[in-house]
Specification:
Oligomer: single chain
Order of helices and strands: HEEEHEEEEH
Number of strands: 7
Strand order of the largest sheet: 1-2-3-7-6-5-4
Shape: globular
Strand content: 35-45%
Distance between the termini: 23 Å
Structural class: alpha+beta
């Protein structure tokens, strides 16, 4: 995805900063934050799961936590990607054990994007869907899925 595609997820500002871990570091859970002028605007994370939650289940939980009362969730026909008012979630299978967590089993992982800008993300649905889908193979490859 090009810069123009994700530009609408960031407000005008003079300084964009990135903190946190890369999603391809092989950790059981990792994430990073992007801030504009020291205000967090975008969080990207990946989590491994012992069970196999659906994209809908994770998105419903995130909508309850971050949706400001908007609990609407839209799931793609594949069932692997879900959108909610503040972000997107994708899930994929990844059986085995986490390289950094000893014997902690895993059956799947999720990639999640939480966006705090713009206030109405409905016009960014396509961008969020494309972005979360592009991250899935990166996390899968880094973790031997």
């Amino acid at each position: 995805m090009g810069k123009q595609a994700i530009e609408p997820l960031f407000p005008p500002g003079s300084k964009l900063t990135h903190t946190g871990d890369a999603l391809d570091n092989g950790k059981y859970a990792s994430g990073c934050d992007y801030a504009v002028d020291n205000a967090k605007k975008l969080l990207v994370s990946s989590f491994f799961h012992e069970d196999t939650p659906t994209a809908r289940q994770i998105a419903e939980k995130r909508a309850t936590e971050y949706g400001s009362g908007n609990k609407k969730v839209t799931v793609e026909a594949s069932g692997d990607v879900a959108l909610y008012s503040r972000g997107a979630v994708a899930v994929a299978a990844c059986p085995g054990y986490s390289p950094d967590a000893g014997d902690l089993p895993r059956t799947s992982f999720s990639v999640e994007i939480l966006a705090f800008y713009p206030k109405d993300l409905s016009k960014a649905d396509k961008t969020l869907t494309q972005l979360v889908k592009k991250l899935v193979p990166v996390v899968a490859k880094a973790n031997g899925c």
